[in-house]
Design brief:
Blueprint (H helix, E strand, L loop, with lengths): L8 H14 L5 E3 L13 E6 L5 E6 L13 E6 L5 E3 L22 E3 L5 E6 L15 E6 L5 E3 L15 E5 L5 E5 L16 E5 L4 E4 L13 E6 L6 E5 L16 E6 L4 E4 L12 E6 L5 E6 L13 E6 L4 E4 L10 E2 L5 E6 L2 E6 L4 E4 L14 E5 L5 E6 L8 E6 L9 E9 L2 E9 L4 E6 L2 E2 L1 E2 L4 E7 L3 E11 L4 E10 L14 E8 L2 E21 L9 E21 L7 E11 L2 E11 L1
Antiparallel strand pairs: 1-28, 2-3, 3-4, 4-5, 6-7, 7-8, 8-9, 10-11, 11-12, 12-13, 14-15, 15-16, 16-17, 18-19, 19-20, 20-21, 22-23, 23-24, 24-25, 26-27, 27-28, 29-30, 30-34, 31-32, 31-35, 33-34, 35-36, 37-38, 38-39, 38-40, 40-41
Amino acid sequence: MPRRSTMGLAACAMALAPVAAFGAFGDVSPQGYLPGGGAAPTDVDGAAFSPDGRYLLFTSASPISGQPTGGVRQLFMRDLLTGAVQMVSTTADGHPAAAPVDDDADAPPFAASLDGRFVVFSSTAADLVPGDANGGARDVFRKDTRTGRITIISRDHLRRQAPTGVTGQPSISSDGSRVAFASGAEPLAPGDANGVADIYMTDLRARTVVLVSRTAAGVQSPEAVGQPAISADGRAVAFQGTGAAAVLAGGDANGLGDVYVARPAVRSIVRASVADGGSAAGTSSLPSISGDGSRVAFTSTAPLVAGDAGTTPDAYVRDLAAGTTRRASAGASSARPAISVNGARVAFASGADVLVRDLASDVAFRASRLPDGSPTPGPATRAAITGVGSVASFTTQPAGATASGVFVTEAGAVSGTAPALTARATLSGRRVTVAGHASDPAGIARVAVGPRVARIGDDGSYSVSFTARLGTEEVAVRATSGLGAESATAVGVTRAAAARGRSDRAPRPRALRASAARPWVRATFRLPMRAAWRVEVRRRIPGITRARAFRMVVARSGTSGSGRRSIRLRVPARTAPGDYQVRVLISSARGLGTSARTIRIR
């Protein structure tokens, strides 16, 4: 893998999948057909893409995968590169859910991670996970499409399910580790006291459940909030609230429904549905958020920009970084607009069509057409778009058909970008800190420093500390965006041997005494000054060099301190009788000093 500013394999798949699946710009392809190629007898509704554009999610009660559905609506995932279809709403051993998965014409309540491995959805099915404690109440599920494992995400901080279930509406981060969803009346975290639905985020890697729709001061909306949309990097969550949710953000005085963006790590909430030369006198809802959380698309009846008469709902995009709001649609838009992960394009329903607008060129492209290029006979709804905005989807009922179907349209390639990445190394004694900043419009999903994964700050900053090796080494730093694109760099770290070596001037442990009484070895000594210490029990073995002359049996270390120490070490039961060395090393500002004694273990 190249080291500098390279695109990862996921980004390659992102570019290849649409081309292999659909062909040239503007090509349209139906997706919800049966294994034999025939039309599904029941509605096929969509849709949502995996960010890499390879997988498409949709629902139907028809056996799209060839597996019986039990006559209820199931969730399917189609591989647009191979054409293979998998039923997702199944148990770990492949049995379909006994109750329908949730679906919503305004905002599909299901989503996939970057490469389609993890899929989240909500359902009242009680048979998907063994031990489902709330029966037919609604839960949020995460399915691992590789292993088949399925888990309940909507649990509280003690891993308990809500007795009456949750609202659902899940959204997932690019790496699949964070899931945002709307709760129910029961609290899922301490401090949730409003008795209505809130927005939560479950972090499966950190094993935490965070109440997102609460201010740093602990204020919650007295009325339910919902429709969460999590950024690809998992650090921002957009959601909608009624006029009562105005308590969540300062300056919200219109008394109407608005769209908010929360950043849980820094406990901040801002209102995104604000006017830019217009008026906020209207209801805003149904957010979709870019990968880094900087851009939010939503629908609103308010004339948020100058020249908008405010007679019909429109699709808007708020750039939180630039502080600007723009109108994406030029006609009615009642369902949720979908913004690409890189924030470059937005798909939305406008009148009877689904359009895709490139935000840089301000050019709109009509995605809702039949494969022969003719207009759809009925209205097109449920706009969806891939992570780079190169493919869009819509749902419509073709002429003569008895059910709706899902179609995808090639919207043209979008040039990829690699994350901006900086790194620097700072050495302090034995410890080195590698820190820097990583950013990308698609969000930064991961920063790896050598074999270590860094914790990324809300502003893209990261820092990792570890013990440096003696001599000079080059530490690789790699950043991965929410679309799988990578950038890499390296920093040099030099730690001189003298920083660890012995010194004649360095103080040594004093009054060292050692004794053995199986299974314990005891060492007592005094630290002449403030120093870190290490006690080792080792056995002398034949060897040419000093480094090979001893074999470690057991060791114990302590932090910086001074004065008398009495340390016990438990030797393994398999330790053979014989003579052993007890060595004490102390590391101080004046260097490394050692003392040793020989003991016999019987």
